[in-house]
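User: Fold this; tokens only.

Assistant: Input:
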Amino acid sequence: MNRLLLKLKSWLSQLSFRTGVIVLLLCIPFYVLSFAQFALPLSSQVKGTLWIILFGLAKTFQYGGLTILGAEGLLRLKRWFKRR
């Protein structure tokens, strides 16, 4: 299992900076959806299931994007935001 995770991390880190930013930005709509679905008239079991799925997808995109970007990519993003 540990070898599989290292192989996945290696593969993700080979992706481009642009891909990392896109994957990282995809976590935002899933965070919004994970909490906005509580306003829908659904049973509490369905709401709980939807929250687990949507929040899990948000976290997956967040950590996947951070893995793709790496430390250098995060510094690059910080510099870009400082210039704006």
